[in-house]
Amino acid sequence: AQTVTQSQPEMSVQEAETVTLSCTYDTSESDYYLFWYKQPPSRQMILVIRQEAYKQQNATENRFSVNFQKAAKSFSLKISDSQLGDAAMYFCAYVGNAGNMLTFGGGTRLMVKP
Amino acid sequence: DVKVTQSSRYLVKRTGEKVFLECVQDMDHENMFWYRQDPGLGLRLIYFSYDVKMKEKGDIPEGYSVSREKKERFSLILESASTNQTSMYLCASRSQGAGNTIYFGEGSWLTVV
Asked: What is the per-residue pLDDT across B39-66, written as a single tens digit (0 to 9) for each?
């Protein structure tokens, strides 16, 4: 079974600074997808970024980028120029290419200090 | 916009009661999910449905059952609620295809007293 681990229960960052959230996963599959989801206080989960395992290039979405290290099974999220609206729970998630069920990590609560 | 609607945001039920949590999606997605979210444990999959009347157990199915009679509707049933089922329940849907985004409802806070 796949597992996803987020080793940082809480992180804080100063507004306008950069922060990196860690995620590691365990799988025997070679093709899969990885996601970062954001859950603000409203509880509505929002997709932040997606990475396909067969793509070597790291995904980027505006201020959000990932560092995908396939051999190390690591998938960290970097948030640049942090904003107050970035404060939320962040979840890392995995799904195998042939599968449908996403496996989520335990989440990291990000606080942004003004 | 994709809409996943959970009928009840906040519920308080007594131990032993039968509880129904309803979820409806409007995007004709094949796959629907029920997750439970608890602090420090992240989201844990209770049940998954990939078609009408089809279901698969997730990581923590004990004490729960599900029903999917129509494609757009996926219900979670607690046959006899217990206090350890006090939690946030999230419904989600997704179209077929591993890379596709999963869409969540706003969640249902269930308290069992």
From this structure: 878 899 999 999 999 999 999 999 999 9
How buried is residue A99: exposed, middle or buried, by Cβ count under 10 Å (0-12/13-18/19+)? middle
Task: Identify residue A78 by its one-letter amino acid code.
Answer: K
Shortest Cα–Cα distance, B113 to chain A (Å): 23
Give residue for tokens 């995995």. A94
Decide: helix, strand or coil at residue B1.
coil
Mean pLDDT by 10 residues, chain A (114 residues): 90 97 93 93 87 90 96 96 96 85 92 96
Nearest CA in chain B to A32: B98
Q: Do A47 and B33 touch (CB under 8 A)?
A: no
d(CA B61, nearest CA chain A) in Å: 14
Query: Cβ of A33 and B35 within 8 Å?
Result: no
Give phi and psi for B70, each to the nearest 5. -130, 155
- CB contact under 8 Å between A47 and B98, yes or no, is no
Tally DSSP H helices, then E strands, for chain B: 0, 12
Q: Do A100 and B48 touch (CB under 8 A)?
A: yes
Cβ neighbours for B10, distance < 8 A, ≥ 6 positions apart:
B108, B109, B111
**So what's the pLDDT on residue B83?**
97
DSSP state of B7: S
